[in-house]
Amino acid sequence: MTALNILIVDDDAGDRKLMRRLLKQVHQDARITEAESGEQALSRAGRPADVIFLDYLLPDGTGLDLIARLNETWPRAVLFMTTGHGDEEIAKSVILAGASDYIPKSALSAEALKRMIANGLKVADMRWRIQEQQNELRLFSDVLVHDMRAPLRAIKFLSDQIQEEYLEGDLDEVARQFDLMKKSVNKTSELIERLASHINPHSEGRAERVTVDSLFDSLRAVLAQDLAASGARIDWQSGGLSVLCFPPEIVQLLQNLIGNAIKYSGGRTPEITVTAEPAHPGVMISVADNGIGVPPEYRERIFEPFKRLQRGSEQPGTGLGLATCAKIAKRHKGLIWCDLQRENGTTIRFTISLDTSQAREPA
Known about the structure:
Layout: E1 5-9, H1 13-26, E2 31-35, H2 38-42, E3 51-55, E4 57-58, E5 61-62, H3 63-73, E6 78-83, H4 88-97, E7 101-104, H5 110-168, H6 171-198, E8 208-211, H7 212-222, H8 224-230, E9 233-237, E10 242-245, H9 247-263, E11 271-279, E12 282-289, H10 321-331, E13 336-338, E14 346-352
Parallel strand pairs: 1-2, 1-3, 3-6, 6-7, 9-11
Antiparallel strand pairs: 4-5, 8-10, 11-12, 12-14, 13-14
Helix pairs in contact: 1-5, 5-6, 7-9, 9-10
């Protein structure tokens, strides 16, 4: 089990010493940090904390007033309130304020702390998972509508093309367009299934090792209409690499990035370069364009849900595309960022860093 990071917030040195001794009896490897006041505790923001023991009375206020700020600073931590005197009203108020449990100092013992921490960590983890799931459910219900438009447009575009080619008697071209339509339909179905899997808390899914070229082929089918309408020129550089991933999600991520490159071209013919490079233990993929670019002050915020640039406000969209990309990158144990050094156009990079334990063997 990973060693716990425990923060004790108490102005009484004797009580902190007792708490440290009891905690070491049940969690010998724990990394314990002490603070004598609320402000001193908050000054440690940025350092990890899995468990927080908070005294009810502190020099700079009550622990009750501090609970919300501590929970905001360490949202995944489990927080317990301690006090020199037991009181049911205090217990009720601290639980309502966001503490996981409450214990009088007179009742402290190694066994009591062991039980509180074990139960609290389970509840905190479950609460975090539920909150994450609710956030993703809300996000992806909107994304399902947002990101289904491109493949459906591609299918409509291809059906129109098929009709034209059929009337002209070019059956070879009809057959080729039918093949592209079949790929678009398959990818749309995969997208629906993957989104359903992503918001299902009981479905983890298994990754597959595929070639980057196969991902690019899927993108050409999905973006057929957008590429034809915009005249976009795309340089695909796969590097001959393969990658362990959830293919429909990576296609969805790249679809969003390339779609943005086309949408925010600023009236120019979009010129886009999609490059895959090795990045231990996985792959880094970059999408670079010659569009209007992203101002430096926005480059770290564009992956937040519903964040849109003012200069692109006249363009249709919900501001969910890049937030979806960030979710997908996170699911692949990777990162996504906007190149801060780029002065003209935009370059967005993301990594895929899944390990082999998440792989599915080919059928």
